[in-house]
Amino acid sequence: MIRIVLAEDQAMVRGALSALLGLEPDLEVVAAVADGEAAWLALQQHQPDLLVTDIEMPGLGGLELAQRVQRHGLATRVVIVTTFGRAGYLRRALEAGVRGYLLKDAPAEQLAQALRNVQHGGRAIDPQLAVSAWEQADPLSERERQVLRLAGQGRSSAEIATALGLSQGTVRNYLSECISKLGVSNRVEAHRLARQRGWL
Where are the 4-aspartylphosphate residues found in this chain (predicted)? Predict the structure, then answer.
């Protein structure tokens, strides 16, 4: 029996996924939760074979959750099931050790088979997304991403500097680097484009 923790913030989708997976004779959903922190607790409590998670959830998102699983060396394999078919997200997911990345509009039987593949040591990546992921490299460094995320929340350079323990001049340099790398004219456009491509 393949034991699964499911993390999905939309109640209807969570219920549907849980019911669909429960119909499979070799799959068992041991916990279905609404956010990343609850998923983290469920992982420690149940020590499942697989974590099936969305990317964007309140608080701790799916990518951060995958990074935490990787950092703590948990045996649980991570599969992302999301509406976000963005190449940047896939690249970051793979860097975080994610074994599967599927879109929510895939047929249910495809998901069940993908989970079996991952459980047996394989990968399950949406093929179209895999192609575009390697065509569009993420030009941002991790620090540039942090700065741009905060800028996207409307924070000033001074506020970003305080939040990240940097000088205002360093923050301005990071923002100007982001604007230059993305070929846009200001921080708002840089944030919008980076989000669109899944780099944030």
Answer: 54
Q: What are the tens digits of pLDDT across the range 67-83?
A: 999 999 999 999 999 88
The DSSP element (H or E) to which 20 belongs, if any, is helix 11-22
pLDDT digits (tens, 9 = 90+) for 81-134: 988 777 778 888 988 999 999 988 888 788 999 999 999 999 998 877 766 655
Pair type for strands 2-7 and 27-33 = parallel
Q: Tell me which residue range forms the domain holding 86.
A: 2-135
The CATH code of the domain that includes 97 is 3.40.50.2300
User: What pairs with residue 102 in β-bridges?
Assistant: 81
**Two tokens at 22?**
């429960």
Beta-ladder partners of 16? none
Q: Tell me whether strands 50-53 and 100-103 are parallel, antiparallel or unpaired.
A: unpaired
- What CATH number has the domain bearing residue 157? 1.10.10.10
* Dihedral Cα 88, 90, 96, 98, nearest 10 deg: 170
Residues in contact with 96: Cβ distance below 8 Å, sequence separation at least 6, in sequence order:
63, 66, 67, 70, 78
